[in-house]
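re: ur msg from earlier - yeah i can do the guanosine-5'-monophosphate complex, just paste it... oh wait u already did. ok heres what im feeding in:
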Amino acid sequence: MLNKIISEHHIQQAKKLIEKYDKIVIVTHVSPDGDAIGSSLAMYHFLLELGKSVNVLVPNNFPGFLKWMSGAKDIVVGEWKPALADELIQSAELIFCLDFNIPKRSGDLGARVEKSSAKKIMIDHHPEPGDFCDITISHPEISSTSELIFRFICRMGMFDDFTRTCAECIYTGMMTDTGSFTYNSNDPHIYYIISELLEKGMDKDVVYDRVYNHCSEGKLRLQGYVLYEKMKIYERYHAALIVLSHEEQQRFQWKRGDTEGLVNMPLSIDGIYFSVFIREEENMIKLSFRSKGAFPSNQFASDVFQGGGHLNASGGEFYGTLDEAVAKFETALLNYKGLADEK
Ligand code: 5GP
Ligand code: MN
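and the outut:
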């Protein structure tokens, strides 16, 4: 039996809203990852089964390695179709906010969602959820939003109607948010859930293959280049930094998703506990932070770059040049408590 995480009160409240409303929109965070797309599409399939009119809306494009998922081609990308995105949010009666905790994390869509008169249900696992939804199902102790969606659907009494397609979406999110079950993945219930997903006919090896083994040649060569030429180690600070300019991304035909996971690699070096990846985007600098053990990467992200996220995986943005972002990072690193060895 699966333990109960989501409160009965929240389940009953959500049930009422789902029964009452037909026009439903599912929204997730900017630069959607496996958990964002997995949880959104699982919820999409679940609501379609209930006969609802439902749309998944993402602020910007998502990686090609998630496009095999059933329903992915129906996802509306707000950046490409702003008028349609507006119309969907305006006519929605119920909005699910999945895998993000504050409106800003959903980019341009966030403010529109916040203003909308639709009822809102948040299902998420990021710390410190904002107060903008009618029902806030927030569980930072759970390693993925996709796992929460599985728990949510079961508690709705719909496990028997759960399809293989839904199982694949849930598994994708659980797998990608735990580094294929290598971190945040000691809760035995995770494996109970996986066994239930397998019972639904899902092939977990196929899901892994689709996500990780269909990349471009450029992506692999970029990894080689970055690790060989671009990784800087700050030994005394147990930290690593990778910086990637716009020009370098062009050189390797960078596409969204091509640098995902790169920031984790330096953590495999003995003695490195903090890894940072700084990438130049069109109109801002994007930062990714990862840590091992107790060092709070999210605290660093928030202290230095007004960002946030989980203890061991977080991010932030910087508005300025790449060099300025790097300088800001280095200054902060050299003065940050809890990283440097004693002299
Ligand atoms: P990634 O490095 O994969 O882009 O992001 C890792 C995690 O950091 C995300 O799951 C999200 O929780 C958080 N995150 C990434 N970028 C930002 C940001 O700009 N602001 C905040 N608050 N969190 C972020
Ligand atoms: Mn997530």
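cool cool. The two ends are 52 Å apart (CA to CA). ping me if u need the other ligands too
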